[in-house]
């Protein structure tokens, strides 16, 4: 890997201008510092160098942001018609599309992901999601009902339901897809008529703040979207705040449990998209080359920092050796380097903390008897780089088999019986994603029905579309983002009955 210098010199003029000065957070349409005056350094994971600083928001800043969101919800935003909300979101999508290259550069600088992936995956999905969610603003509907009320025999009644915005929403997003996660949270909430206080991840706040600038320029009223940066404190303050009606959280299961407990005090609405340990099942009739490529992408996509990463691989024994050999070759061939280098196929992990976490799992996989057939280990030089690793012959008792790693480590296991692999795949506290690779339609449908996961792919993995609901079973959380289902997260149902 070539020596990396300050990557801000690689940015376009627009992106370089954005990071050239300390950033503020967005509250009530204005950019401001934290009331404490404290800041947080934002660093480039490829070099460890500081990019810029952002405010270290606290509970006082959250109080201010929530008050602004409440005023907007009960004031100007409440008078904005659905078609106007749709137009504002479509305008925001157009503005983001015009600046897609700039946003991609900021995402790669802040998160470390490959620039081509930032531009052609994250940005396109974010833009498409804005436009898709904009359409729902004019399509939120209730139902009409003909009740019986047998105990009032002489009067006829009519009933109907209304879908109303839930109110002020606190949204807490992770660092692995910063821009996409911000849009997935903000867009449906605004389409439904809610107002938002967004808490970006401490490690990756830049594209959320740049999106906030576009939101202001697009013409959204002050206070409709507020963005409070910082560490855990503002997130906790949002969860505890008595005037926040709902929390939408994407992140680890451990933090999700804490949020669920803390939200009980105010009975907030919750949606939680949490961790995963997704199985990838390769049957003996599968196309070997397609399965190898698919399994590699399932776990190494975004450097393994994906909640649906296919980190548990089950291969029917007749294909096991061929698939393991192919994955070993794939892992060894990955070019690890700066996301701005066109030759790179995998960038750095997001932070020193994450690098240490993944390294600990790598060490544990070896010490517990996993057979490391390829990769693994840090890359010399600055930054948080790690080579992708493939472990073969992993057993159910091993830590790398059972726990979410959130890094480029694959744990592979052979199987002989379909019922056996179904049991192993479902024997997990998680249930977010799963995939099966086969040319047999009957077997594909069998696994689709038997796998306990909110998202099941056949001969594919990690495919996402704004129209397809996304969420988990078990300790992978509850609630569905995207699709029609997402409107249930940001609306309340009100039943109305009156005599005719």
From TrEMBL:
Keyword Oxidoreductase attributed: yes
Annotated Pfam families: Aldedh
Name of this chain's protein: Aldehyde dehydrogenase family protein
Record keyword Membrane present: no
Domain of life: Bacteria
A GO term, aspect molecular function: oxidoreductase activity, acting on the aldehyde or oxo group of donors, NAD or NADP as acceptor
Keywords, comma-separated and alphabetical: Oxidoreductase
Ranges where the Aldehyde dehydrogenase domain occurs: 31-496
Originating organism: Novosphingobium aureum
Similarity comment text for this entry: Belongs to the aldehyde dehydrogenase family.
Catalytic site positions: 273
């Amino acid at each position: 890997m070539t020596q990396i210098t300050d990557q801000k010199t690689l940015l376009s003029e627009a992106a370089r201008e954005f990071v050239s000065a300390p950033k503020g957070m967005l509250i009530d349409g204005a950019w401001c510092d934290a009331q404490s005056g404290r800041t947080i350094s934002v660093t480039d994971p490829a070099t460890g160098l500081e990019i810029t600083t952002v405010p270290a928001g606290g509970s006082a800043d959250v109080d201010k942001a929530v008050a602004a969101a409440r005023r907007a919800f009960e004031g100007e935003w409440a008078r904005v018609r659905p078609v106007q909300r749709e137009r504002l979101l479509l305008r925001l999508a157009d503005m983001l599309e015009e600046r897609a290259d700039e946003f991609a550069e900021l995402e790669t600088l802040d998160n470390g992901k490959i620039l081509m992936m930032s531009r052609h995956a994250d940005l396109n999905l974010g833009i498409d999601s804005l436009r898709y969610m904009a359409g729902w603003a004019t399509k939120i509907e209730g139902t009409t009902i003909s009740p019986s009320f047998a105990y009032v025999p002489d009067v006829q009644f009519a009933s109907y339901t209304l879908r109303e915005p839930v109110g002020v929403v606190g949204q807490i997003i992770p660092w692995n897809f910063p821009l996409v996660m911000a849009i997935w949270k903000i867009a449906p909430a605004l389409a439904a008529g809610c107002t938002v206080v967004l808490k970006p991840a401490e490690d990756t706040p830049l594209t959320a703040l740049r999106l906030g600038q576009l939101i202001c320029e697009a013409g959204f009223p002050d206070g409709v979207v507020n963005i409070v940066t910082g560490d855990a404190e503002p997130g906790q303050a949002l969860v505890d705040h008595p005037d926040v009606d709902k929390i939408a959280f994407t992140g680890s299961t451990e933090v999700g449990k804490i949020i669920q407990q803390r939200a009980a005090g105010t009975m907030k609405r919750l949606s939680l998209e949490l961790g995963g340990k997704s199985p990838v099942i390769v049957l003996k009739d599968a196309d070997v080359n397609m399965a190898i490529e698919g399994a590699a992408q399932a776990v190494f996509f975004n450097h393994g920092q994906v909640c649906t990463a296919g980190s548990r691989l089950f291969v029917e024994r007749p294909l096991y050796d061929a698939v393991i050999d192919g994955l070993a070759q794939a892992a060894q061939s990955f070019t690890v380097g700066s996301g701005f280098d066109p030759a790179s196929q995998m960038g750095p992990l997001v932070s020193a903390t994450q690098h240490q976490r993944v390294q600990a799992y790598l060490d544990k996989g070896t010490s517990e008897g996993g057979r490391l057939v390829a990769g693994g280990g840090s890359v010399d030089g600055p930054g948080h780089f790690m080579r992708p690793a493939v472990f073969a012959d992993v057993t159910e008792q091993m830590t790398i088999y059972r726990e979410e790693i959130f890094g480029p480590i694959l744990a592979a296991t052979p199987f002989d019986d379909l019922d056996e692999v179904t049991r192993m795949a479902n024997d997990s506290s998680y249930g977010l994603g799963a995939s099966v690779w086969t040319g047999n339609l009957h077997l594909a449908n069998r696994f689709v029905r038997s796998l306990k996961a909110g998202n099941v792919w056949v001969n594919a993995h990690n495919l996402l579309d704004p129209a397809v609901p996304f969420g988990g079973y078990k300790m992978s959380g509850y609630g569905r983002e995207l699709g029609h289902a997402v409107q249930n997260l940001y609306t309340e149902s009100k039943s109305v009955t009156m005599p005719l």
